[in-house]
Write the structure tokens for this entry.
Amino acid sequence: MTDLHARIDAHVRREADALLELSHRIHAHPEVAFQEMQASRWLADALEARGFAVERGVGGLPTAFRATLDGSAAGPTVAILCEYDALPGLGHACGHNVIATVGAGAGFALAPLMHDLPGRLVVLGTPAEEGGGGKVLLLDAGAFEEIDAAIMIHPASVNQAAMPLLASTHWDVTFHGRPAHAAMAPHLGVNALDAVRLAFAGVDALRQQVRPDVRIHGIVTHGGDASNVIPERASMRLVARSADGAYLQGELAPRLERLFEGAALMTGARAEVVPAPIRYREMRFNRPLEAAFARHAERRGRRLLPLDPNTGTGSSDIGNVSQALPSLHGQLAIDDAALPHTAAFAEAARSARGDATVLDGAAVLAGIAAELLTDPARMAEVRAAFEGT
Ligand SMILES: [Zn+2]
Ligand SMILES: [Zn+2]
């Protein structure tokens, strides 16, 4: 195994220039969800050039790809996941150029070794993590069938073996009222903006009666057209999250939906409620995969922080994947302070530390994949942990 890790590290070193050039190129050409034409092509081309069989447009998504390399004998299938979408207006402020090249780099490092290893290696290009739910669409299209474990790394401000991602859903609510002159005849109007205000007031009253892990947040997306006209139409988007997806969908969601109806009832407006087409699930942890991440990250000189269930966190479509098969979403630091979705984080994603993380991450994921492919006991442990949670 030590020899295998030394070979992985050597291959990562040999590919370092190509990987960092690719990371910087993706960073310099940010493409938002579902429009990652260049990034997906660059990654798929680079994997193809190293011997992978590449299928583009997987699951009907033009910017998804699957690069496959078979080993020398039958064995498990391990998938390494790439993300490469940017944020509108903020560029690569979530550091997905790092995720993309960590995943590709793990593929580069294992490509020359696969003729010695059993099983199958897949590098899966998953578009539109930022709100588009690319992995959910790929799951529905069957792209994760026959995959025994899915592993990926997200850049962060800490080194940590997992991220406690929340289940998340949202609603677009439009209230329809009746317009009237706001001074001459307000009694003839039905104020749709009042319904929005009362819905938010109801949300605030509800906060005390929900579990502590719940997050509810939203914006007014339309507040009327003129201040001297009773608003005929007003709309809002509300997001709700919880660490417990069953609680979110089973208890919280119906209460919020009743609250929208209540605001309509109070004002006489009509509520048009459009639920989110895609719901993000909470992360299902896999301790053996996290232990493997810790071993390989420490081997690369990373000091890991223990998981703190109270740290603030977001949601991601890897949560849905983790409910379907054993999954890992490890974190490697590219900065000590900057948080995702900020300009400082975008800067860190192409800094010297960001670059070091690309190489560490590639070696870590390649090491975990090699372990899962070659050690049936480890793979069995990962499967058992998934079934036991
Ligand atoms: Zn993000
Ligand atoms: Zn992200």
In short: The chain has a mean pLDDT of 97. The pocket of zinc ion (ligand 2) is lined by residues 94, 96, 129, 154, 340 (CB under 6 Å). The chain has eleven helices and ten strands. The longest helix spans residues 2-28.
